Amino acid sequence: MTHARDVLDTFSVSFWLPIGALTIALVMKLPSLVKMWRDPMLRAVGGLLLFACAVFVFASPSVIGWTNRVTGVPNIAAPLVYSLLTALCASWLLLIVAWRNGLADRSASTRRAARWVVFAYAGVVVALWVLFWLADVPVERRRDLDTYYATTPFMREEILLYLLAHTVACSVTARLIWNWVRTDGLDAWLRWGLRFLGVGYATNLLFDVAKLTAVIARMTGHDLDWLSTYLAPSAACLSATMVAIGFIIPHGGQYLHERWRIRLAHWQLRPLYLLLRTVNGGGAPFTPRATGELRLIRRETYIRDVLLQLSRHLDEELRERSYAAALDLGFEPGRAKALAAAVTILDAVAARERAPQTDSAASPSGPDTAYLLQEIQAVALALRHRHHIEAVRSRAAAPGRENARA
User: What are the DUF6545 domain coordinates in residue numbering (predicted)?
Assistant: First the structure.
């Protein structure tokens, strides 16, 4: 048990882990908060992250001691931390009200529900301070105040009040989030974010259970203080970290996924891009500070421009024979179409090298290149498998292929 307490003690004071995670989430949400401050959902998210950071900052033992010392009032950090935690609970419920009713809902019932949350939890904050001033708590306790003063008049009621307010808010929020996770039509990143939020709020209930069990044990003459001193802070740190990750995933995951998609698309076009560079000896303009989107657009534009230059050399009959040959070889239609286009482009590049002067005669009357311009990604991927292309080319050139197609 002593070893377990030491492990929990080490983790319970690691308040900077959730503070760091919550700060990252707040920074990622900050641009949206500034631009759309009137949005009640964003205000609730901003308040949630801000109050969550403040709770862990002011709940750390070193800051508790500093607060008590600066004010000259023993244990005044307690109602301060309890008030911040109560404000955090209110932000949870306000966020749920905004989520439940949707962004476009500004009905009287929505506003009334939000007012009830604000008034109820503001009343709890006022009661916390009144009870503290009525209580006699002269001995400073930085880590075990809840159990040390569990039987002290007025302080006892204050401890139970903040835990009750926290438990109610956490239970309602966790239940509604898990209900939302099971709904259809959610974006994958949002669903994962909600799962982390659900786990975070469910873990927060462990904080309440540990605290209440330890406090009630004290009231009944038993000693389970380790639940409050060691387990509860550990659960709170884990919960806050999960909640922060839940807010980070939808935004950060979508951003990283988009960056990866752009870089992957740029890389996939490389075989076709390198092939077409042999046509005019140039390439897409390179700017070291260009964004990934701009580089992708420039590469796509270059490829389409060169394909238009090759239009005079494109052999439509070869493409049709190659498509049929690819189907005969067992490729599915989309893959067969890309392989046939790759064969046609390779043939056009070779034809252009044999007769470059015919480029000047290229005109809109040449073969239709729409299928090439629209499917450059698929054609580029096909060029990575030259053995497939050679197999299709050989079968398309086999004697009797033209008669078979006829």
Answer: 259-379
